Amino acid sequence: MQRISLGKSDLSSSRLVYGCMRIAGDNSPEDRERGKAALRAALEAGYNQFDHADIYGGGACETLFGEVLRESPGLREDLILTGKCGIRESGQPEAGDPKRYDFSYQYIVDSVEASLARLGTEYFDLLLLHRPDFLFGAAEVATAFETLYENGRVRHFGVSNFRTSQVKLLQSQLSRPLLVNQVEINLHNIGALTDGTLDQCQRRKITPQAWCPLGAVAYPAWGNTFTVEDEQRIEVELQRQSECYEAEAWQVALAWLLRHPAGIQPIIGSTTPSRIRAATHALSLNYRREDWYRLLEARNGQPVA
After folding, report:
1. Is 59 a residue whose pLDDT tops 90?
2. pTM higher than 0.85 for the full model?
3. Distances (CA, A) of 109 to 53, 91, 93, 164
4. 3-state DSSP call for residue 86?
5. Nearest to 115 by CA among 102, 105, 103, 124
6. In this structure, what are the phi and psi dihedrals at residue 188, rounded to the nearest 5 degrees?
7. Which of 63, 144, 172, 195 has its CA 20 to 30 A from that of 204?
8. Number of structural domains, the chain?
9. CATH number, domain at 137?
10. Each residue of 104-133: pLDDT tens digit?
């Protein structure tokens, strides 16, 4: 597995990130065993960064991962554990409370402590704010980050789904650099290419991470707006490139993301061991600029202007 440095840090991360959102399934014994098998496959394939969030499985995903850590003493030191917080589900903590975002000092600190307890570890290597809180105060967030850092609970920080202006605002209050901005990037959603997100990542040496990297290829994209004709064009071009590169269509779609000079890290969320392993093949494709633009043209239905 290729390695990259995360942002302006000495953290050496696998180029592909393993996403833990689905590892607990319905939390049945059968699904939990499948989740553990997926985690073992990811470890064997060379993934060393594992992406969590306090809301995944209502905390069950973190608890399951904690079991794996306890079963393998010494494993923790070889991993980069990423946590996310900031989304509060409806009815929490009081009945009738709406679903909302929360970047208040107490919520961030309490959420991290609860996640670490479920994981059975003393610290996160990286903490991300999950989705922007419309009411967030950058100074208050900075104070929470400083508390977590000084207490040894979080070593590095980043954001998720942040606009470029929000990154700039938060960074202005921080003494340490934000390492990551985790956003949706795939053939359906190419906003990061056009809204300045990837430009900012290159300029500030922030590592972009792509959630839902195979949207519109291996599974339907969030908020799909493609027509049948759009999907057919993309399918035809992916098939042509699959034959050219001797790879599956979804592996080509990963290579399309990996080709960008910002150093995008796709987050692989499959719980199928063979697919987790096969994703690494995308790293070996010598993906050409011309094919990158051919796929963009198929996506858009027209050449670039």
Report:
1. yes
2. yes
3. 14, 20, 16, 25
4. coil
5. 124
6. -80, -45
7. 144
8. 1
9. 3.20.20.100
10. 999 999 999 999 999 999 999 999 999 999
Contact 35, 1 (CB under 8 A): no
Instruction: Give residue-wise pLDDT tens across range 155-208.
Output: 999 999 999 999 999 999 999 999 999 999 999 999 999 999 999 999 999 999
CB-CB contact of 285 with 245 (8 Å) = yes
Catalytic residue among 56, 123, 245, 287: 56
In a domain, 228, yes or no: no
Residue 40 lies in a domain: yes
Is 107 part of the annotated catalytic residue set?
no
pLDDT in tens, 222-267: 899 999 999 999 999 999 999 999 999 999 999 999 999 999 999 9
Domain of residue 24: give its range.
3-223+257-286
- For residues 55-90, one letter each, b for 16 or more C-beta atoms within 10 angstroms of the residue's C-beta and e for the rest, the string is bbbebbbbbbbbebbeeeeeebeebbbbbbbbbbee
Q: How far apart (Å, rounded) are the C-alpha atoms in residues 265 and 7? A: 12
Would 279 be classed as within a structural domain? yes
How much is the mean pLDDT over the chain?
97
Model confidence at 57: pLDDT above 90: yes
Strand partners of residue 219: 215
Q: Could you tell me if 6 and 182 are in contact, meaning their C-beta atoms sit under 8 angstroms apart?
A: no
Are the CB atoms for 140 and 174 separated by under 8 Å?
A: no
The whole-angstrom separation of Cα 223 and Cα 232 is 18
Residue 73 predicted with pLDDT over 90: no
